[in-house]
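Weekly structure sync, notes
Attendees: PL (lead), two postdocs, one rotation student
Agenda item 3: pending single-chain targets
PL asked that the sequence for the first pending target be pasted directly into the notes so everyone works from the same version. It is reproduced below exactly as submitted, 111 residues in total.
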Amino acid sequence: MAFISGCTDITAEKANNSNYPTQVALHALGETFQSSASNLVITQQVNRGELPDRAVVTIEESGMQDDSVSAEKTVFTMRYQDGKWQIVNRIKTQRCWAGRGHQEFSEQRCN
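Predicted structure, written out during the meeting:
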């Protein structure tokens, strides 16, 4: 398990024209993202090490304080165009608590 900490001032403007796909994805989730404490896993994959132009960012939040949804996963597909990372696709899925619906990530809502 790793913990990452830092003191960086990242404004919305910086995130929108950032060279960091993860910052763009987090900004797109909005101010209400992770409104209560939960487990969080973020992965970023780029298509090449030097001057990447495509990225996939996956943000998974689990252990949620919700009576039906145990986890949510949002996958962002991005392209680097016109000097900034742009979201070209966004898919949000959820996994339900036992007895409240599907146990695999799905776009279907929990009961």
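Discussion points:
- Residues 13 and 28 are 12 Å apart (CA to CA).
- The helical segments are 12-16, 21-28.
Action: rotation student to compare against the earlier draft before next sync.
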